[in-house]
């Protein structure tokens, strides 16, 4: 995008949506929200001053944020209103799926720590994104108990 070419998008239009009638967006810009825009910006491996961000990436992260919201609502509903979490050091998962997802989570936490120390925010975002979609939602919530 370039100001001189007149194809710069206002971030507020990505957050709230806009009915722009430009060649690039014949149907306007869909509302993506601030969290999705932040994730889209952080997901790029930037080596210069420019980020090549397309609205499709922000929209993809909007869907991801929605999936996070729905998964959290599902888990909280499954745990019930009287659930009281145990301190992590006292938690001993009994079911193999619980142990599996916690091991995957530990790997992601370690990777995120390494990536953030190396200032590779895009790698940390990718690790969290992959864990949440492929391990937690696609495997654990679908096939395992919600016993954490």
UniProtKB/TrEMBL annotation:
Q: What is its EC number?
A: 6.1.1.9
Keywords in alphabetical order: Aminoacyl-tRNA synthetase, ATP-binding, Ligase, Nucleotide-binding, Protein biosynthesis
**Pfam families attached to this UniProt entry:** Anticodon_1, tRNA-synt_1
What GO annotations for molecular function exist for this entry?
A: ATP binding; valine-tRNA ligase activity
Q: Name one GO cellular component term.
A: cytosol
GO biological process terms, semicolon-separated: valyl-tRNA aminoacylation
Domain Aminoacyl-tRNA synthetase class Ia span(s) in chain numbering: 1-53
**Keyword Lyase listed:** no
* Domain (Methionyl/Valyl/Leucyl/Isoleucyl-tRNA synthetase anticodon-binding) ranges: 98-141
- UniProt feature coiled coil, ranges: none
PANTHER family for this protein: VALINE--TRNA LIGASE, MITOCHONDRIAL, VALYL-TRNA SYNTHETASES
Q: What is this protein called?
A: valine--tRNA ligase
